[in-house]
Amino acid sequence: MSVSHAKPEMMLRGIAASPGVAQGPAFVFLQQALDVPCYQVSPEKMHEEGKRFESALLETRKQISQLRSAIADRLGEGEAAIFDAHLLVLDDPALIDETLKTMHSTGFNIEHSFHMVAERYIAFFSKLDDEYFKERVGDIRDVSVRILHNMLGLSRRTLAEVTESCVIIAEDLTPSDTANLHSGHALAFVTEGGNRTSHAVIMARASKIPSVVGVASVTEQVTRDDYILVDGYEGVVYVNPSPVTLERYQKIQYKHGEFQEKVFGEVTLPNVTADGVPFKLSANVGSVEDVQIMAHVHAGGVGLFRTENVFLKHPNRVPDEETQFQAYKSLVEAVLPDRVIVRTLDIGGDKQHGILMSGESKEQNPFMGFRAIRFCLENKDYFRTQLRAILRASAFGRVKIMFPMISSLDELLQAKAFLKQVAGELEAEGVDFDKNIPVGAMIEIPSAAIASELLADQCDFFSIGTNDLIQYLLAVDRGNERIAHLYEPCNPAVLYILRYVISMAKRKKIEVSVCGELAGDPSFAPLLYALGADSLSMAPAVIPEIRYLLRRTTRADLDALVKDVYAETDARKIGEILRNFYTMRLI
Ligand code: PEP
Ligand code: MG
Q1: Is the terminal CB of the chain with fewer CB neighbours within 10 Å at N or C?
Q2: Ligand 1 pocket, residue 477 CB under 6 Å
Q3: Could you tell me if 78 and 189 lie in one domain?
Q4: 351 pocket-lining for ligand 1 (C-beta < 6 Å)
């Protein structure tokens, strides 16, 4: 598609979420709310209703088959197999017969009759204590929503169906939306909701997809035939940019390209400061595919493996022990001789999974709710499966296990006791694993930070999750664009708690790393390193820039930085000190 000069340029402002500039045609991703009508039909009309049902089933079959072959071509047969399960649901005579029977006995229209039957099936399978049947819930839900859309004449979109390169415009994106998208097809993301540390944004940043979030009513202002330019540095979106804007951005992109070249010129140089002190930079990853970019940027191992991404890639099934083991083992082997910190499942909050959470009722405050270690300690079957897979993978390389969202010593001890039990089971089965696997906790809840002295006695290492630590400390939902201005890492309370946790880890002589987004932020990386963080873990794409920056520091500058920052009480001024420190070194 070419740039439309007929339409006037419109500029929209949002929050700069993932850096970079990109342009392309718009793809407006909107889900229509599914409002299933309910009315009585006369017996004479029931034959016609049955016919409508039949043609919706045929249309659904056609769509699923098309989707199946598109995914098979693009991603391979393995990824396409999910649609075979969907076709099986469509073939289930019980679902079809019961729908017709329900219509005849109740006199309700076919959509409502089908909806009642499908919901009954979903409720029944969700309650079964069997993983296979639980997985079927997602398939039934997916297929029934598709059938309903077809009966109601609505079109349903998923990002897996995006087949051309475009700028994706959405109300909001979930991590599974982004996980399902074939990376080459999203040039940029623009959303109405979200914040810099929402998980979909973290994934966009890891994939180097420029993003602007919090753009009010963008889905109403943009249509399919608009051309979009996204500036992920400044948080600005141009709808139908003028030739002048396009030319200006050509220059900006050229300048950024030049800077990246300079930074990449040092990618193979050692991680040592200007006065010869070594530093460690590792990568935050979500799958084994990230290893390629890790090698490209010379990352020193994996400081955070977000294992939930292995689950989110397939929202309609739960990977079994073997699938998880293979995923973890491939990563662990690929990263050797470096180590991988494998974080156990951090599901919940903005990371909802169709099957794992299917039996749970909707929460008022998901970020403060049934998430991460809380979910695992109450779902021991899933937890056991994952721990077995991680422990088995530990026999193939250097693995550390980390528990997310620890809020108390008791919770940490429960998680450790269960890990010990699972390790004992594996040992009894004669399965090989690392018997001395280090175990650590994420420090991302204020209570854990305050109790870090106690927790350190029970941990081999800490990793500070600044994304959550800031949201819980400041009571600012990390995904809510309305209060994004309050999500302020320079708030002195944040700086005090970071300094405290690092000092406690030092006092107790355990390793401490930082794996939240602040670790890869050039304003914060020098401060965190200066405070004593043993390693910084970040999206692989930003490693070269942080390396370039730390190579231009000395202990004396870092000490002066700490002194200046902690002498200041105003968040805005602290921000200026931090920005000045890095801009002076990056020019
Ligand atoms: C964090 O909270 O800082 C973190 C690294 O974990 P996540 O972003 O996955 O919640
Ligand atoms: Mg977290």
Answers
A1: C
A2: no
A3: no
A4: no
Work out which ligand 1 atom sits closest to the CA atom of 515.
Answer: 5
Phi-psi region of 138 (alpha: psi -120 to 50; beta: other; left: phi over 0): alpha
Whether 121 maps to a domain, the answer reads yes
Residues with CB under 5 A from ligand 2 (ion): 444, 465, 468
User: Does residue 448 sit in helix, strand or coil?
Assistant: helix
Evaluate: CB of 319 within 6 angstroms of ligand 1: no
- What is the domain range of residue 457? 265-583
Q: Which ligand is nearest to the CA of 466?
A: 1
**pLDDT, tens only, 290-346:** 888 899 999 999 999 999 988 887 766 889 999 999 999 999 999 999 999 999 999
Q: Is 465 in the pocket of ligand 1 (CB under 6 A)?
A: yes
Look at the chain and report how many structural domains it folds into: 3
Q: In what order do the strands lie in the sheet with 186-191?
A: 10-13, 236-239, 227-231, 21-29, 166-170, 186-191, 211-213, 15-18
Same structural domain for residues 127 and 56?
yes
Nearest partner of 21 among 178, 169, 228, 214, judged by Cα: 228
Apex 106 CA angle, 102 and 110, nearest 5: 55
For ligand 2, the distance from its centroid to the CA atom of residue 467, given in whole angstroms, is: 6
Structure tokens at 462: 């800490």
Ligand showing the shortest atom-to-Cα distance for residue 405: 2
Looking at the fold, whether 424 and 362 belong to one and the same domain comes out as: yes
Any idea which residues carry the catalytic annotation?
A: 199, 515
Q: How confident is the model at residue 75 (pLDDT cuts 50, 70, 90)?
A: low
Q: How many whole angstroms from 379 Cα to the centroid of ligand 1?
A: 21
Cβ neighbours of residue 359 closer than 8 Å, sequence gap 6 or more: 126, 127
Mean pLDDT of 41-68: 88
